[in-house]
Fold each of these.
Amino acid sequence: MAGRQQSAVVTGASSGIGAATARALAAHGFRVVCAARRTDRIQALATEIDGIAVSCDVTDAASVRGLAETVGATVDVLVNNAGGAFGSDEVATAKAEDWQAMYDVNVMGTLNVTQALLPALLASGDGVLINMGSTAGRIAYEGGGGYTAAKHGVAVMTETLRLELVGTPVRVTEIAPGMVKTEEFGLVRFAGDEEKRDAVYAGVPDPLSAEDIADTVAWVATRPSHVNIDLLVIKPRAQAAQHKVHRT
Ligand code: 8X3
């Protein structure tokens, strides 16, 4: 294997943590397959980092099969990053379609891509599977029921995979970011309402950036083969807990 360029797949690579992760892995020498629905964005990114763009909807089986075909027989790193929050309604009044969409992209999307690429990760002889979780996968908060349920699903799927894959050459990691300020996450959650999005970060001295999380993904992906990072919970200094945020 000496001298072989390592490869990585990043889903949700069109913006935010996914795009930053693709850049960080490319900077570490990986050939990165950038997967997302928005082809124009991932094509621009792939050109920038000398990677490959694959148009992919992780909730669509045929689309994920296409991704697996492009990836081929071997891949060293898979970052299941595609996900998101839709809506901030309380459980009593939440829209079922928001919950369904969150389960579909965060949980089923991670399952679909994992199932499709696991043979290639195993074939690499030293695969690293990284699921993008959230602090929402470890705690509950008001108005977050559908998202926290989905991210708890990602957390448990990650733990289950680690149990099931022990003895194989695949490591399994969950990265669980807290308050990260990206261009789209909050806007999507609040259906384009910038005021609501801005209120989340109001007065917080330094929320995390997409690059902060990408940096940790690259670190996890470049540990020696025998080192499995199970879980990284990452919050800005100003966030001691989900409900305990320092604001100036
Ligand atoms: C994002 C973290 O606090 O919005 O995954 O749930 S939070």
Amino acid sequence: MVRAIRATPQELDAAVRALRAGELVAFPTETVYGLGANAQHASAVQKIFVVKGRPADHPLIVHLDSARFLHRWARAVPPAAAQLAERFWPGPLTLVLPRAPEVLDLVTGGQDSVAVRVPAHPMAQQLLTAFGGGIAAPSANRYGHVSPTRAEHVREEFGTTVRVVLDGGECQVGLESTIVACLGDVPRLLRPGQITLAQLQGVVGDVAVGPDDAAPRVPGSASAHYAPRTPLRLVADGQIERLAGELSRDGTRVGVLAQRSPLGSFRHVTWVNAGVRPENYAHDLYANLRTLDKAGAACLLVQEVPADARWDAVRDRLARAAAATPPGLDELP
Ligand code: TXA
Ligand code: MG
């Protein structure tokens, strides 16, 4: 059943009361679910780090219902940032801006910048408007694990530790927001997402790509980021059947995430065909990795995705997940 996408007044009231009391609230956005706290309440924000097991120097994104109070968080909004906000907010875009002096160091990781986003999901909008302030929120998963794209994933991650979980159904995008730092002369893409480099360039012209020395905290740079628990390996299309066959011959269960159906049948292989459309693949990616994680496989073989730009965000997350795989698996046939 498709769940209503708006919170009831009772749900909203409970969530706002929890935020005001310094408690955490998990809520849907169009990218992934967030684990939110009142961004102006230090001990509330501190709980995010404890519950997630996240290193204290990793900065958080502040979520706002619109750009109207942006100046409370950013001391300057460069023209390029204003243009990007105008074009893509509300939406799956995070802007890194010079921080306003009042912003908590816990939120910024002690940096001179702050990450801000205006999500489009109607339930996130309801929550932010009813709360009236900024909500600091990382993805609602334990540190280094796969981001949640359904309310049930959040419950799997945290059980009853997070009491208030707003259920807004499946996240439409399925991958974390595109992050653009607007600190120097040229905007810099720090994390690819649904909004592509070409779309950013279409609005502001020149865009640099990747981390630079002025932005030491690279999003998701830790090798264990976005990784399922099962070791994951990227494989070329033509290798999948052979590898799956060899690995599963002795009864070892193997998970496969491909863009097509298998050629033939295997006894010990759990095969997911995620299709050839990047939007659908992204939408389902984290749910598919969770499903494959539960299949009891010793390893996951993931078909390499196409080289074109529409797959940039997916390719980025898969590369990070593969980087978390222990070296031993690379020595498999
Ligand atoms: O789609 C999303 O962005 C989701 C939803 C919940 O909004 N949030 C999310 O948060 O993915 P998280 O914490 O998992 O990833 C945020 C990334 C982190 O990797 C962090 O390093 C980066 O944003 N970040 C935050 N503040 C930053 C800053 N001042 N400079 C550079 N990177 C920053
Ligand atoms: Mg995250």
